[in-house]
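Here is one chain, start to finish.
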Amino acid sequence: MHLSEPMQRFVVHWGEMGARWGVNRSIAQIHALLYLADQPLDAEEIVDTLKIARSNVSNSLKELQQLGLVSREQVLGDRRDRFVATHEPWDMLMAIAEARKQREVDPTIAFLRECADAAEADSSTPKHAAERLRRMESFVGNLTDWYSQVRAMPQGTLVKLMKLGAKVAKFVGG
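Its structure:
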């Protein structure tokens, strides 16, 4: 696949942003390439285009599939797997948010609950510290509950809310 200069810049930048967000650079670059591709690509096309190791491409494609950002497609008469990324930015955002919630937020809530419970049961822990731990657990739990409610809303409603921005605060009295 030929990448024009703007396409190359996007792929490189997406890789840099992925690295800043805690995602392997190659994974993010492969995602960017598949996002821009007008047809599904096989692993060799990805290797040739991005000049990265075949094993790295294979591992990255597995992770992208687990994240729900890339799917595998078959072509009649061709034994190679081909890969395609979702081209809807909203779907990408939701898949990334859900994966990060499961990987980072859910374990943190469980850890905070465990710490708060232990602090409340431990007479050597100052009362203010136990209260702060419980408040943090409650705060992160409320954020997660809010996220779940937002996630359940239709995409059209979320887009309207996003476009309203600060005007929502006026509606609810803020």
